[in-house]
Amino acid sequence: QLQLVESGGGLVQPGGSLRLSCAASGFTFHYFAFGWFRQAPGKEREGVACISSGGGLTNYADSVKGRFTISRDNAKNTVYLQMNSLKPEDTAVYYCAAGQVTAVQTMCDPGVQGYWGKGTQVTVSS
Questions:
Q1: Contact predicate 23/94, CB 8 Å
Q2: Residues 12-64: tens digit of each pLDDT
Q3: Quick one: which of 16, 33, 102, 115 is 20 to 30 A from 47 by CA?
Q4: CA angle 81, 4, 25 (to 5 degrees)
Q5: Would you state the pLDDT for residue 1?
Q6: What element of type H or E holds 82?
């Protein structure tokens, strides 16, 4: 059974850090690119970061460049999102998605065809 399960969300103060994980099962992990997305209340889902199937190519939204880092461990079938210097505007539900794309930036498109997890809440507040 194909599954993507996000974890690592929570409440953190501004300036703090969190690491999200996306554990995948039920498909051939290293054939797929991955993306992290977020959706805040009343806003559209946006792509945050994405990574190629081999891990050598990444792409980030301008709002998170220099603060967030996406990575993957193909031996553990897991994708990570390290989030540093968090801001209140980073508050959202974060989702991971897997897809087979020809260009890594396509994996950051919220309309990408693929498999999606159910999300994990990140709240940045003092």
A1: no
A2: 999 999 999 999 999 999 999 999 999 999 999 999 999 999 999 999 999 99
A3: 16
A4: 115
A5: 84
A6: strand 78-83
Q: Is 14 helix (H, G, I), strand (E, B) or coil?
A: coil
Q: Residue with structure tokens 């703090």?
A: 16
Q: How confident is the model at residue 119 (pLDDT cuts 50, 70, 90)?
A: very high
Residue of 47, 49, 84, 87 lying closest to 67 (CA atoms):
84
* Residue 28 CA, distance from chain mean position: 18
> Containing H/E element for 19?
strand 18-25
- The single residue listed with the structure tokens 């990444």 is 58
Q: Which two tokens stand for residue 87?
A: 């801001």
Give the dihedral of Cα atoms 110, 48, 62, 18; nearest 10 deg: 160
Q: How many residues does the chain have?
A: 126
Give the Cα separation of 95 and 21 in Å (integer). 10
**At which residue do the structure tokens 């999200």 appear?**
20
